[in-house]
């Protein structure tokens, strides 16, 4: 029988202290320095990185340095029995490249070679990266710009930045590995992103695809397969916190008060059930539902909704919005990644953003480019300041997190934080900034409630989107920019032209004046799909690092070249970074591919 108590929930970062193997003086003189380097990295990671539940990251260092192949293999054994998902080798000196290198083809790998002169760590780095490249096992190279003395324990800011970028992306790779995407329903309104491509999930992410028919949600409602105590608590919280907005439907089409009250109960039950489908719930076992209690081990899910479900039953907007938020009736908690319209490719885009930041995500249609001319024609206001080149309307019912109201602050500025940093008053502010409008019954014949809010401006955000291109495979697009505030009457006029019961984010991308970032129009014009996943912060560089680990080329981004950090091998595919990325990804193929 497997002892589940020894099963660690999260992957660890394995640190490999590499040393010159020459006993009889050289090795002995370096043992302490080498081990200290490893310990200093652990300190940095423990201070800076958190797992999705907020707990401190776990690292593991062997209690020996690696001077040759025997110790390299012993370290590999240690890592494989301790759930290591990311591998970082560190050394202050020359050591033997191929004898000490990490040969595991699936672990994201980096080497930090100390830039000193007494002993040449950077020479080991170069030699071992050459070995990695020769053997087709890409690794990231890290060494500081300024020479340090051998006894200097400080990790310089440039090295810190690279270590953390590598570790965050490496952990994202490890955290999604062996987990599931749960599709609830199937294809929504012909959206190709909801046609699940299992080969992509398996080969690039090492993820499973799980599927349930939407009728499973209905069965659990009908047969009362949910925690009834939690349902009462959730309904009470919802009544107290989720204010119902005006019904904008034609009078003749409005649902009766009785139906609306029933809808509230229904959507709260849907929320419990979608969560239980994703991660299981021990309470269900106590109720006699052992299979249902186990869930689908889903790290991300999608709900088809439109149309078969929404033509018949209340829509998924409440469950999607609440699950994607950092709080509910149980208080603050990690957000769940739930894609609306079962757009799995946008779900994965949200997952990438989330695993890099631990913050909740906004899922939106990339709906409208508003040129300055069109804005002026419609509102008489000539956009100025950050809006002067026009802006993009991000809006979709459903999966936008309530954190997207941008009511959380840091140093007075709007932000979205990991749940453990959010205060109770910030939770309340997000709730208060949201109005739950009776669903537009033209679209959603079965009723339900949509979360109406407006994202506060001046928040740095990054939107990404993964697309599948036949003949090429996946490619990722990334745009950094800002949310903006519009004058109130302008917002009203523009928002009222469309689905005013939905959450709105006004977005301005950072322009580079070139290609897809020539102007705001070009950004929208080059977007590869109807949806985007929007994260707090400027994390485009981290997404680029993550994509390179998975061998997904980046087809569009506005990140300065100096911020791009990819495995050393990418340099051998040419000096022009975008084309070298394509060639490298094609050469290596998907991280978990078999060919
Ligand atoms: C209600 C509509 O069918 C929307 O769901 C539609 O605009 C989309 O979001 C398409 O992605
Ligand atoms: Mn949509």
TrEMBL record:
- L-fucose isomerase N-terminal-2 domain span: 179-358
| InterPro entries, per the entry | Fuc/Ara_isomerase_C, Fuc_iso_dom3_sf, Fuc_isomerase_C, Fucose_iso_dom1_sf, Fucose_iso_N1, Fucose_isomerase, Fucose_isomerase_dom2_sf, Fucose_isomerase_N/cen_sf
Q: Where is the L-fucose isomerase C-terminal domain?
A: 394-557
Entry keyword Manganese: yes
Name all L-fucose isomerase N-terminal-1 domain ranges. Answer: 10-178
Q: Which residues bind Mn(2+)?
A: 341, 365, 531
* Active site positions: 341, 365
Q: Where is it localised?
A: Cytoplasm
State which Enzyme Commission number(s) the record gives.
5.3.1.25
Q: In which pathway does it act?
A: Carbohydrate degradation; L-fucose degradation; L-lactaldehyde and glycerone phosphate from L-fucose: step 1/3
Keywords, in A-Z order: Carbohydrate metabolism, Cytoplasm, Fucose metabolism, Isomerase, Manganese, Metal-binding
What's a Gene Ontology MF term here? isomerase activity
What cofactors does the UniProt entry give for this protein?
A: Mn(2+)
Name the chemical reaction catalysed here.
L-fucose = L-fuculose
Q: Does the entry feature the keyword Metal-binding, yes or no?
A: yes
Family named by the database record: Belongs to the L-fucose isomerase family.
Any idea what job this protein has? Answer: Converts the aldose L-fucose into the corresponding ketose L-fuculose.
Protein's name in the database: L-fucose isomerase
